Amino acid sequence: MLLGVLRLGVLRLGARTATTALVTRRLYSSSSAADGLHHVRNIGIIAHIDAGKTTTTERMLHYAGFTRTIGDVDSGDTVMDYLAAERARGITIQSAAITFGWRDHQVHLIDTPGHVDFTVEVERAVRVLDGAVTIVDAVAGVQAQTRTVWAQAARYGIPQVVFVNKMDRDGAEWQRCIEDVRRRLDVRPLVLVVPESAAGDGRGQGTWGRLEGAKLERWLDAVTMERVTYDLAADPSGAIVRREALLPDDPAYERAAGARERLVEALGEVDERIVDVFMGEGVDGQHVRVPSAEVRAAVRRATVGALACPVLLGASFRNVGVQALMDAVVDYLPSPADRPAPTALVAAGKTDRQVIVAPDANDKLVAFAFKVIVDQQRGPMVFVRVYAGSLDARMALVNTTQGAKERAQRVLQMYGDTAEEIPFIPCGHIGVVLGLKATRTGDTLVHAKHPLLSSSGAGGKAGKKGESGGLQLHGIAVPPPVFFCAVEADSPQDERPLAEALASLTLEDPSLHVSADAETGQTLVSGMGELHLDVVRDRLLNDMRVNASFGAMRVAYRETPGQVARAAFEYVRETAGRMAHAEVELEVAPLDPEDEEGCGVKGERDAADGNMVEVADAVVDSAAANGGTLQGEVLREVRAAAAGGVRGALARGVLLGFPVAHARVRILRLGHISDELSSPAAFRACAAQALQQALRASSPQLLEPLARAAVRCPAGALGAVLADLNGARRGRVLALDEDAADAEVKVVLAEVPLSAMVGYASVLRSLSAGQASFAMQVVGFGAMAQHEQQKVLSRAHVV
């Protein structure tokens, strides 16, 4: 009893210390100590929707001493979900950053959305993280969006810790979740804790379902060989955590020893040093004798090297297991100094060279802007990750992506929707900059006197606006929108407020596109899904108080040539008393999206729509035939202008004006080139007109976005769900499985046209008496049947 009281006193003292560190050392990030970088963790919380990301984050903030009470998602009083739309819907819509202290470390945490419509929020968060916590629902296991966000983090090589949450729910099965992690995420799990007992045989070798409360609150730590008890009876907030060393005569010792054995064996497969310790003096091949410090160090090496991932268990809503997760963040996830230094491109003549941006506080500033939000009082708030040097208030900067000079008026450290002004953002840290006017998501910011600034770019001798140059970090890939709708101001007086509001939203959200329909004059808003556009509508009408009307939700198609076609166009026009003459002949052909070689055509595919543009070698009529001399510089400009005209024209097809995809365009001939009459603008316009003619002659087809949907439904509703997917939804069933947690629940995996999924949620509820659910993700574009294409064209009043 006395030991428990002493342990409680130490833990509470630790909590007070953490709180003091947060309040009095909020400028801890401004420390210039040599080891300061090793005490920093830039992490994100990623998972499928409703896995418990925000709930877990709220507990972290409470245990770190940041909040006095624990926020609740259902009550709408969380620190991280501060938007009105987030609190009303009970979901995270945009990523939010916060900084807190834990065990003398500074943690920059980004809480991300779990819905597929907001996947770009996850993408730009993981772009700047050093580690991540992936939360898995103990009942549902690894879900569709879990795999998506895991893959997003894996693309950047980010080490991750898995937290199996909701262990207090009926049907929770931690062993199945671990196997899910191994099989579906393709990673080696390192199980660090196990329940002390479970339903079944009493040793956890079975389904861990309904447990008595006391058993839920006891865990065995395989690293330290201790029993960990969460005394919720004494303190429901979970602040009282007792650790007790396990002795050989303890009934749970055998179970803990088995967990330690499996952990050491798993580490031995990826780490040679733990093998040496295991076989060394004093251990003699006994797993339980391996020192805890050596096990912890081996887990860290395996995690930082992305060779394996630690797995912890808990129930965030019940306040169980979150402190151990926070310890794992500090113990196992890397600091900025542990991560490979990013590479950047530096313009070197006509080519680019790569340089390493080392995390050196004494270098000139190199920072990456990964997020922008617009505050009504502060203006644009640019979230940055500093990779080299430090970003000081009032510092003169250059945006090398946009080719613009900037000045950081103030720098802030964020705490959800509140901020504290700090003197500078040090190397390896995340912060916010005020006063930047031209900076967007994905831009690179450098010190105005950085030695690698290109003289032809914006550095030093500032280039023209929009002219990029100098050192640039790799940007962020933003997927193309798949849904759109029209929006119109209710009156002429409302047009300007609407335009300003849309500009603010597109600045904040790079996956939101605003364009004008040239034929109807309507303003079109394009996004990633129904929920995405519904949130945009809600923010415009309720948050920004814009008077506007929205049209029906429509799907963003693509257009593609149906066959090979050629066209020639001659351009003759007099402008400002000068005659411009150009002629372009080109060929357009369909390009198989699966053909990686591009059908033997030289050139590179466009990353967004898979198009390829090539200018043939012998494209120019002889100079003698054109009656003039032809200079090499003129020829290069004309070739580049014609190719640019083609690429610009591919943005609008001839059927419904959607972008052209999977097209191969080969410019065969450029005519009427001379020093006197040649104009790059003329050849650009001529090439665009020639492409339009060729597309009309190519029997163009519509491509519709395809979604991969995972539908979970009770067995009694399976027939109705399958009939609907195969019939009205025009889907193709790929797989049919039983749910791992419940044999009475079936999981249907299908590929379905996205247009057929508009309003599917309400239809599915009707088919299953409200018991079914689904998740889907756009996977690409596919050819549309001719009769379906005719329906679309007829509705658009084309036919």
From TrEMBL:
Record-level GO BP terms: mitochondrial translation; ribosome disassembly
Described function: Catalyzes the GTP-dependent ribosomal translocation step during translation elongation. During this step, the ribosome changes from the pre-translocational (PRE) to the post-translocational (POST) state as the newly formed A-site-bound peptidyl-tRNA and P-site-bound deacylated tRNA move to the P and E sites, respectively. Catalyzes the coordinated movement of the two tRNA molecules, the mRNA and conformational changes in the ribosome.
Origin: domain of life: Eukaryota
Xref: NCBIfam families: small_GTP
GO molecular function: GTP binding; GTPase activity
Occurrences of domain Tr-type G (ranges): 38-337
This protein's name: Elongation factor 2
Any Gene Ontology CC annotation: mitochondrial matrix
Keywords recorded for this protein, A-Z: GTP-binding, Mitochondrion, Nucleotide-binding, Protein biosynthesis, Signal
InterPro entries in alphabetical order: EF-G-like_DII (IPR053905), EFG_II (IPR041095), EFG_III (IPR009022), EFG_III/V (IPR035647), EFG_V (IPR035649), EFG_V-like (IPR000640), G_TR_CS (IPR031157), P-loop_NTPase (IPR027417)
SUPFAM superfamilies per record: EF-G C-terminal domain-like (SSF54980), P-loop containing nucleoside triphosphate hydrolases (SSF52540), Ribosomal protein S5 domain 2-like (SSF54211), Translation proteins (SSF50447)
Pfam families: EF-G_D2, EFG_C, EFG_III, EFG_IV, GTP_EFTU
Alphabetical list of PANTHER family matching this protein: RIBOSOME-RELEASING FACTOR 2, MITOCHONDRIAL, TRANSLATION ELONGATION FACTOR G-RELATED
Thylakoid is among the record's keywords: no
Annotated signal sequence range: 1-17
